[in-house]
Structure formats: structure tokens, C-alpha cells
Amino acid sequence: MAEEKSYNPSTVLCAVDFSEESRLALKYAGTGATLYGAKLVVLHAQRFELPAYFTPDQIETLTKELDSARAGAEDSLRQYSRAALGPLADSLSISYMVVDQHPVDAILETTGRVSASLVVLGTHGRGGAKRLWLGSVAENVATHSEVPVFVVRQKQHDFIDVANPGSSLRLRTIIAPVDFSEASRAVLRVSASIAERFQAKVVPVCVVRQDAASDLRSSEAMLKEWLGQVNAARCIVEPVTRVGHAAEQIMALINETKADLAVLGAENSRSAGHPLLGRTTKLVLRQAPVPVLVVPPGT
Question: What is the location of CATH 3.40.50.620 in the chain?
């Protein structure tokens, strides 16, 4: 394999809904943008459907009111973002966008429009209570995005000082599940790149099913071979192989190692060619007590 490029996002897109989860996401987005020297785009999207029974005059009047309200919303977005980022906001190149569109569509389309290479989202924003684990917007974006998506939630183990996002990073251990798919190459590549930059340790983990325990040794050998194909030699790597249910073993390892971040792989749909989430990625994404970075193939 040719020399792999480091993961260096140049534009970070952070979507917010004015919730506490979004405030946390902003702090991570601001810290990441600062450390990578990236631009930060803060997006708020809210779809407003005009009632079908409105007359043309009513539609015109309401449209004008919405346009006026949107201008005020951008000011509110700016104030909200600067309050969340604190002094960090003064050192960042930040742009703000308010759009009348469904949040998932808006985030995915804006990602392409601004050439974002990282999307940052909080879970359990408005409407999140309707979901058992993960806000529907965050999961849908992570499912369909063609760039990495960083997902945070409240009451998790944080690797930044949320009270002072401009302080030093405390990223020490990264869990990187591998199943030898094409997405796994992206997981290893991105994990190693992040670990090298922040002097962290990568723990690649391959989980073999109980009924395939005899394949454990060959999986260990393949994992070692794969690690030689990425820039893993430039950081501390402690590979792990386990037998059992993949999501359960990954979650257990996150807790045992007191990990700071989990990097999970998305998959390509054979028919559409777009990234999708596998079952294990969904389960870990919904339950992980740490921030999660979902990376599509080719990242």
C-alpha cells in the first residue's frame, strides 16, 4: 500500500439546535478547528412547513416574517456560539449559517457546499427524547455522511476541558475496532493519524465470534499485517483480539482502558456506493460513554 496521508480536516462543520448537547459539540468543534488550523462553520437548520390552507397573501406575509426572523436567528446563533466557545472564538475563522431545511438534509448538503472534512454533532437535542439512545438527526447524518462525523453526548467521558475548550487536550487512548473491511482501513489510518498528532495510544481491536474462535490466531496475524500498511509505526499501538459479541467486547474494552475516543467505520452500500452504518457501529455509537468518530471508507 502507498504511503497514507494524515487526516487533517481543513473545514469543520458544527450543526447546532441551541441545546446543551450542541453547546458541548461546539466546544469540541472549536478545539478541533484550533488544533488543526481549520475553518469553523456553525449551522442551524429548522424546517418550517407552511400550512396547506394558507392563502397566497398569507403565504407572502408569513414568508417576509420568516425572512426577518432568520436574520435575527443568525445573530442569536453567533451569540450562542461565542458564549459556548468563550475566548477561543476570537482566534477562530468562523462563519454562521441559518437555513430553512430539514436538519439532516441541510447538514449533508452544507458539508459538500463548504467542503467540510469533519462534521461535529451533539446527541439528544430537541426531539432527542423520542429516541432511546441517540438523537435521530445525529444518527442519520452519521449513516449517510461521506466525511467523518464526530458525535458527542452529555454525561460522557470528555477529552477536553469543557469549561475551558481552549486548554490542552487530554486525548490518551483511542479504541479502533477492525473487521478487515475497507472501512477498517480508514479506521486504522485516521486513528493512527490522530494518535500521532496528539501523542495518544491506539488500541485496534478485532473481535471474533464465539463460533469462529479457531480463527483468532489468523485474525491476530492479519491485524499485525494491516498495522504495517498504515502509519501506525509513528504512534503507540496495542492491538487486541477477543472472542464474543463485537459490540459488547468493544464497549467492555472502552471501559477497561478508560478510553477517550472510539473511531468506528461506516460501510459502503453495494448498490448505492454511499457509506452506511453496520450493526456493530450503530450499537456502539448509541451506547458509548465516550465521543465517537464515524469514518467512511476512503477517508
Answer: 11-152, 173-295
**pLDDT in 10s for each residue of the chain, 299 residues:** 344 567 899 999 999 988 889 999 999 999 999 999 999 999 998 756 556 666 676 656 656 656 656 667 788 899 999 999 999 999 999 999 998 888 999 999 999 999 999 999 998 634 434 443 335 788 889 989 999 999 999 889 999 999 998 888 999 999 999 988 888 889 999 999 999 999 999 999 988 877 666 677 777 788 777 777 665 667 888 989 888 999 999 999 999 999 999 999 987 665 555 667 888 998 898 889 999 999 998 88
H helical segments located in the chain: 20-36, 56-85, 103-113, 136-144, 182-198, 216-227, 246-257, 279-287
For the structural domain made of 173-295, what CATH number should be given?
3.40.50.620
Quote the CA–CA distance of 291 and 25 in Å, as a whole number. Answer: 10
Q: What is the pTM of this model?
A: 0.86
Topology (CATH) of 11-152: Rossmann fold (3.40.50)
